[in-house]
Amino acid sequence: MAIAANLGFPRIGAHRELKAAIEAYWKGETDAAALAATAADLRARHWTTQRAAGITVIPSNDFSLYDQMLDMTATLGAVPARFGPIGGEVSLTTYFAMARGAKGVPAMEMTKWFDTNYHFIVPEVSAGQSFRLASLKAVREFEEAKALGIHTRPVIIGPVTWLALAKSRTPGLAPLELLPAVLPVYRELLDRLAAAGADRVQVDEPILATDLGEFHRAAFWTAYDELANAAPKLMVATYFGALGPNLDVATKLPVDGLHVDLVRAPEQLEPVLAALAPGARLSLGVVDGRNVWRASLEAALAPVARAVAVLGTDRVEVAPSCSLLHVPFDTGLEKELDAEVHSWLAFAHQKLEEVAALTAAANGDRAAVALAFERSAVVAMARASSRRIHNAGVKARVAGVGADDLARRSPYATRAVVQDARLGLPILPTTTIGSFPQTAEVRRARADARKGRITAADYDAFLERETEACVRFQEAAGLDMLVHGEFERNDMVECFGEQLSGFAFTRHGWVQSYGSRCVKPPLIFGDVARPEPMTVRWSRFAQSLTDRPMKGMLTGPVTILQWSFVRDDQPRSVTCRQIALAIRDEVVDLEAAGLPAIQIDEPALREGLPLRRADWEAYLGWAVDAFRLSAAGVRDETQIHTHMCYSEFNDIMPAIARMDADVISIETSRSDMELLAAFSDFAYPNEIGPGVWDIHSPRVPDEEEIVGLLRKALAVIPAERLWVNPDCGLKTRGWAEAEAATRNMVAAARQLRATF
Ligand code: GLN
Ligand code: ZN
């Protein structure tokens, strides 16, 4: 019989109960026992939910109080020395200190989990490090489920992925060299799980979906030759992409089974079937664990039926493509969502029902699930032809985009001259990235307006006062190019999505981003159009208050795409182009409203990069084109800015240059201006504002420190092309810090100007 399996379930709770419990614990409002009770209650509910949905292989240890990578780090006893010696098990205090830092002890680094918006805590390793089993969480959670009568398949992060993602603290040491040291701990953990009654364990090795060198591939042999001798049968889980050249390694591992992602890489079914070791089980990831749309069951059944034909039902498992951690909990909670859009959606709960229906069909019990298949077919047809999705005008406009639409009228050198004449800025002009502090008062006013506690007119008047005060502050501080402050915005994507057609918003569609932090991405379900101007009202108002140049402030098409759940019935590049056209209209309207500069933020451009290098060029092609399309509607004298808040530019420099923004502001202060080397090595031709003030920290840099950073910048960027600005927006800062740092920044720019 084919088996219905799940790889992981959202842990935060349908109503973010875990978030509330963890944050209350952090604040000292509750104790560890209360947190443990909430966590256990959620686990019990989630296991029961999965069983009720018809799932046979139910995961355990997919739960986490912060992050599954950090859990593995604790399990291996890999606690960096700065957190103090650990005796027995890693304590809850140490665990959270590793994640968030403690008094005087910096947290471990955090970075994105492959190409998701989930962030994991990066393991740190050093030469000669010893490992030991220092957390029995996996065993305890298995036993906890067992006590509830649910036999689970524990999930752990595999040794190669754990090490491949680790950061070396010893120069010259490749983390993977520590493989022989971690394997005995893995072995011991597997033995302990077996002793507790676990007969199967899921070992996540998503690193197999990335480009690996020989060293990594060889590590897989070493690791699994050793672990295959352990008592539990191992299911090695890969996801987020094709195995590609790693197919041979993955299919020949001496393990019981392999999970492959057939949503991201349906084409790998045949090669996997051909290469799979004799007798090995195959878990088919056929329900999309990364997106929110209902599956077409008929289409999803095809690869399952094919695998059954080749392997027989006994060697087949049906599963989501990856852990369901990356989708919201349950569409049943959405009571306010448009009914038609609602009918197209499947969140974690619904996806498990899809897995169960597919499994039944694979086992020849099609009659039992006829209704589910029929419903899926009806929905697929309705969605394909819905008037809510298809807008002929938008499609025609996208089809009509030509090369001319992607290019500014003149090259940068020409534009720079006319912009200079119009703006009359001093050398080393100062500006900010857009937002000013979102104080409790601002957030309260927004909530009051939304709940109808204050009138729209009162809220509008409040925003006018905030905006005006912000403009006056910037004038007094001596900034050269001003911003309106973004007080009217809740979130840099949501505020646009709410005004664009083709977008929908959920009430409970939360997805864990890191730790207790969740995001609620908009759903892009249909063709995107902009019925009306979105930001002109506030930008025009702000410009009307001052003679200094004001910068209009927009979120770019790639970032809007990247931070949403995107429709899966057309290529992402097409959806991105539609968004670009909507932003382009806004850019042109801002220009007409008299804004001499417009910033189009693209902080998510880099995170959209595909997992494999071979796919980068295609992505960067359409992504940069989308930015260009959004920006190129204006005259030469209108200055286009862009902003990106990250610091790895080396490998994408040509794409950054091709965006052809007149000015780009980037985050650099934390790297001590080091990354500017990428811009100078590449001979980046346009203007650059390297951040001189780390807005992630409450620390206020003094004038001399900023002068020092600017001197470093001047060593690689000519003064005529250098701007002075913070690393990012100031929305998370308090006014006191923002004021002090802004004044120091302006003073630093003036001090240096005097030397020219
Ligand atoms: N304009 C935005 C702000 O200042 C940019 C934020 C971002 O890039 N993350 O808040
Ligand atoms: Zn930023």
UniProtKB/TrEMBL annotation:
Coiled coil: none annotated. Binds 2 Zn(2+) ions per subunit. Binds 1 zinc ion per subunit. GO terms for biological process: L-methionine biosynthetic process; methylation. Signal peptide: none annotated. This is 5-methyltetrahydropteroyltriglutamate--homocysteine methyltransferase. The keyword ATP-binding does not apply. Pfam families: Meth_synt_1, Meth_synt_2. Belongs to the vitamin-B12 independent methionine synthase family. Its cofactor is Zn(2+). Residues 5-306 form the Cobalamin-independent methionine synthase MetE N-terminal domain. InterPro entries: Cbl-indep_Met_Synth_N, Cobalamin-indep_Met_synthase, Met_Synth_C/arc, UROD/MetE-like_sf. Zn(2+) binds at residues 643, 645, 667, 728. The gene is metE.
